[in-house]
Specification:
With 333 residues, the protein is α/β, with parallel strands linked by helices. Helix content is 37%, strand content 14%. The strands form two sheets. The chain has a five-stranded mixed sheet, with no helix packed on it. Strands 6-5-7-8 form a four-stranded parallel sheet, with helices on both faces. Helix 4 packs across helix 5.
């Protein structure tokens, strides 16, 4: 109902501007008549001034309607990552206005600078899987943080990063340059202790299957059945592209993925791709875990649209150019 009122008022402003413009043009054409009396000419000039003022009022009214409607739908964006390594991530496909974006990690949420409570807050869990961390834990931590400040904003929780419809498009674009006959894709996701595994990895496989219909796509887990190694042995393709369904590089990518030796034992070769989150753009202005400005608080930074896909080339594990993992790498998300 409110939207109808906004649209009706805006339409009224447009009609008033059109009528004023038409009236001014009509009065101007009448003034060009040669046998026009002086009184009529004066009257027509006054009508032109009136129509001009009416058109200006219509423009001002339309601008005020746009401004009031924008203020009515004012909102903040809170991007919550699992740790400081995901602070630079952006939700793909979302246009966020400058000055209303806040970033923080789940671990430092208690001392973070949170968005004000004068407008709704859209909470984006920058995590790959839905579960306790992106659900109950995040909700309770946010409610406690705002309660200590004496505020109760309207919080609207969005789907996790791993459920984004932009991910399959970015993955398909990256894989098209590497696919050849006899090549398959193995997506390796983090295991879960929930009764049912999170749906995000299966959703990605289903969407990838529609984008790459002639490619064998399989899903395996670490820490949960079916294991990635078991799925690798059952695949019919001879060359397998291993895609970690993870947010960042770390302990899991160095320890829990199938190795070239395991693939060779079952007559296959593998090529390890970068983590899936690296296929999307990051915010270069956002602080990272290694930067000195990454303090334990939320970071308010300018935002931009994020669906531009950059292909990052990564050498296969074991190759001469492959990076050597650290002795004790941080845990992946």
């Amino acid at each position: 109902m409110r939207r109808r009122w906004w649209n009706s008022l805006l339409l009224l402003c447009v009609l008033a501007f059109a009528a004023a413009t038409w009236g001014s043009v009509d009065c101007g054409q009448r003034l060009e008549q040669r046998d026009l009396a002086a009184e009529d000419a004066t009257h027509l000039r006054r009508l032109i001034y009136f129509h001009f003022a009416l058109s200006q009022l219509a423009i001002v009214g339309a601008c005020m309607l746009f401004y009031l409607r924008h203020a009515r739908w004012k909102r903040y964006y809170l991007l919550v990552s699992y740790n400081e390594k995901g602070l630079s991530l952006n939700p793909p496909g979302i246009l966020m206005p400058r000055g209303r974006v806040y970033r923080c990690s789940l671990r430092s949420l208690e001392h973070a600078e949170l968005p004000p409570s004068d407008a709704p807050v859209l909470v984006y869990p920058m995590m790959m899987l839905s579960g306790i961390s992106s659900g109950e834990k995040l909700e309770s931590a946010l409610e406690s943080a705002y309660a200590r400040r004496g505020q109760r904003p309207d919080l609207y929780y969005q789907p996790v990063f791993g459920a984004s419809p932009w991910l399959p498009k970015a993955v398909a674009q990256h894989l098209k340059t590497r696919l050849s006959p006899g090549t398959g894709v193995l997506i390796v996701a983090h295991g879960s202790t929930l009764p049912e595994p999170p749906p995000e990895p299966r959703l990605l496989c289903r969407r990838l299957g529609k984008l790459l219909p002639r490619t064998e796509i399989a899903l395996g887990y670490f820490g949960q059945a079916p294991s990635a190694l078991h799925v690798l042995r059952s695949m019919t393709s001879r060359h397998i592209l291993v895609l970690p369904f993870l947010l960042t590089e770390g302990l899991h990518t160095a320890r829990d993925l199938p190795t070239p030796a395991q693939a060779e034992a079952c007559g296959k070769t593998i090529e390890r791709l970068p983590v899936i989150a690296s296929l999307l753009d990051r915010d270069e202005d956002a602080p990272t875990a290694a930067s000195p400005t990454a303090a334990p608080q939320a970071h308010k930074v300018p935002a931009h649209t994020a669906p531009a896909h950059k292909v990052q080339e990564t050498a296969a594990p074991g190759s001469p150019t492959a990076p050597v993992p650290a002795p004790h790498p941080p845990a992946s998300v």
